[in-house]
């Protein structure tokens, strides 16, 4: 993943609470993390909801995503008495037992995005470990160049619904959308269907005004065509 161990600020362990399995897992994590400079909190969702068997991995992912969303680390329950076969003081890890804020790591004087490792081990021997990192809003690209806005649907009725949904989506955004990003997603990230609408826009505000005018039945710069599939 291209991250140093110091950048990982939480590990969601497989953590079944077994006398033998947990020490083996912690030993493996210690080898992977090495001599990191900051203690790393760990936990296991199994202490909260039990072992979900085949769904244990997605349960762990869900927990980490919720923690990232709220910026907090949930406690592992029933963990006051730690496994006597694990000397946690000699490891870089600490079992998180109270609800606490997820602290941002500072590395070389710069704040790092919150990153978590997640381990999930299958009964058949398939072991997985993934890293999830928080998304940080970036400053939208600014450009003075117009962009091509395209929408397509199966028919005009659905094209109108799509246009209205886009207008509402833009209105609900809490951060500024970049015109070039919107245009790219509509051109590359959508399936091209028969009924198509297209126009050039200089700004997000113009995208909204042009679409709203078309929805209101007013003549504007939109071009609407139908391209039937080849026989």
Automatic annotation (TrEMBL):
GO biological process, one term: DIM/DIP cell wall layer assembly
Keyword set, alphabetical order: Phosphopantetheine, Phosphoprotein, Repeat
Membrane-spanning ranges: none
InterPro entries: Ketoacyl_synth_C, PKS_Beta-ketoAc_synthase_dom, PKS_NRPS_Biosynth_Enz, RhiE-like_linker, Thiolase-like
GO molecular-function term, one example from the UniProt record: fatty acid synthase activity
Location of the Ketosynthase family 3 (KS3) domain: 1-134
Gene Ontology cellular-component annotations: cytoplasm; plasma membrane
Domain of life: Bacteria
PROSITE patterns the record matches: KS3_2
Alphabetical list of Gene3D superfamilies matching this protein: 1.10.1240.100, 3.40.47.10
PANTHER family, sorted: FATTY ACID SYNTHASE (PTHR43775), SI:DKEY-61P9.11 (PTHR43775:SF37)
This protein's name: Ketosynthase family 3 (KS3) domain-containing protein
């Amino acid at each position: 993943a291209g991250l140093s161990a110091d950048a990982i600020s939480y590990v969601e362990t497989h953590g079944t609470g077994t006398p033998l399995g947990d020490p083996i897992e912690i030993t493996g994590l210690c080898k992977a993390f090495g001599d990191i400079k900051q203690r790393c909190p760990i936990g296991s969702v199994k202490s909260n909801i039990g072992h979900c068997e085949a769904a244990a991995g997605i349960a762990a992912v869900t927990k980490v995503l919720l923690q990232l969303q709220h910026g907090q680390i949930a406690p592992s329950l029933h963990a006051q008495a730690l496994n006597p076969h694990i000397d946690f003081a000699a490891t870089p890890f600490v079992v998180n037992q109270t609800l606490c804020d997820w602290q941002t790591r500072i590395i070389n004087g710069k704040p790092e995005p919150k990153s978590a490792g997640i381990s999930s081990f299958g009964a058949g021997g398939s072991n997985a470990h993934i890293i999830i990192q928080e998304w940080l809003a970036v400053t939208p690209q600014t450009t003075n160049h117009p962009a091509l806005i395209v929408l397509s649907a199966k028919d005009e009725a659905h094209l109108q619904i799509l246009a209205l949904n886009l207008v509402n989506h833009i209105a609900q955004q809490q951060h500024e959308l970049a015109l070039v990003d919107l245009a790219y997603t509509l051109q590359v990230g959508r399936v091209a269907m028969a009924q198509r609408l297209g126009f050039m826009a200089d700004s997000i505000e113009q995208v909204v005004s042009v679409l709203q005018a078309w929805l209101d039945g007013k003549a504007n710069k939109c071009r609407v065509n139908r391209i039937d599939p080849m026989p």
